[in-house]
């Protein structure tokens, strides 16, 4: 039986420093889990491009900084296999923005409300041993995405629900291919609740939070 752990991460270095979820903490936690493979929030095409030129950081605004600064080098150093699991269609991504169809004044209101949700999420940083890997964070995060779904279900389905489903299926493909390995999923912390709800149903040892 595979063991699958989940580590929710913050993509922004300034926020990582402010809320004490630094790259050294992530590194310590990853090494403690001792994965054979890491399934990371990286698009397969971006991973392919990285393998061709690991200095090419100027494309698409992804992968997030923790992959360049921690996860990719750590995988190379410790010989951990990396599996890219993200999904999006860049050419139509902006067409599915949650507020794209609203008048400008209403759009501004919703953008401010979204910032309020983000503030609520950040206020949970003291819960759990790894900031933003807690039930308290996940409850608010799920509520935020239910709010976004109510505003624009079309956007929610493509940008969030379908994307998460495909990411989880790529994790499933990985543990089916490597049934006796320790696999760590590293994703933005907003994805935590979705991954937990899906993967805890599966015939694996699922661990979240991993500390």
Summarize the structure.
Helices cover 52% and strands 12% of the residues. It is α/β, with parallel strands linked by helices and 211 residues long. The longest helix has 25 residues, at 153-177.
Architecture overview:
This protein has 211 residues and is of the alpha/beta class. The chain has helices at 13-18, 23-33, 44-52, 65-78, 104-122, 135-151, 153-177, 192-199; strands at 3-9, 37-40, 81-84, 182-188, 205-207. Helix 6 crosses helix 7. It starts with a strand and ends with a strand. The mean pLDDT is 96.
Tell me the helix content: 40-55%
Beta-strand content estimate: 5-15%
Strand order of the largest sheet: 3-2-4-1-5
Assembly annotation: single chain
Structural class: alpha/beta
Overall outline? globular
Termini separation comes to 21 Å
Number of strands: 5
Average pLDDT, rounded to a whole number, is 96
Helix and strand run: EHHEHHEHHHEHE
Computed over alpha carbons, the radius of gyration is 17 Å
Unreliable stretches covering 5 or more consecutive residues: none
Please, how many helices? 8
Largest sheet: 5 strands, parallel
């Amino acid at each position: 039986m595979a063991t699958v752990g989940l580590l929710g991460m913050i993509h922004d270095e300034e926020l990582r420093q402010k809320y004490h979820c630094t790259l050294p903490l992530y590194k310590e936690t990853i090494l403690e889990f001792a994965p054979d493979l890491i399934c990371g929030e990286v698009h397969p095409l971006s991973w392919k491009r990285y393998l061709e030129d690991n200095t090419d950081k100027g494309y698409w605004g992804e992968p997030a900084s923790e992959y360049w600064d921690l996860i990719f080098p750590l995988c190379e150093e410790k010989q951990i296999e990396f599996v890219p699991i993200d999904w999006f269609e860049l050419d139509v991504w902006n067409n599915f923005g949650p507020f794209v169809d609203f008048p400008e004044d209403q759009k501004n209101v919703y953008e401010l409300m979204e910032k309020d949700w983000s503030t609520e999420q950040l206020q949970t940083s003291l819960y759990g041993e790894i900031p933003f890997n807690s039930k308290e964070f996940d409850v608010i995060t799920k509520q935020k995405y239910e709010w976004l779904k109510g505003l624009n279900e079309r956007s929610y389905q493509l940008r969030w629900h379908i994307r998460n489903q495909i990411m989880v299926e790529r994790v499933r493909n990985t543990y089916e291919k490597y049934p006796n390995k320790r696999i760590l999923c590293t994703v933005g912390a907003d994805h935590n609740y979705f991954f937990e709800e899906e993967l805890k149903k599966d015939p694996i040892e699922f661990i979240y939070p991993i500390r």
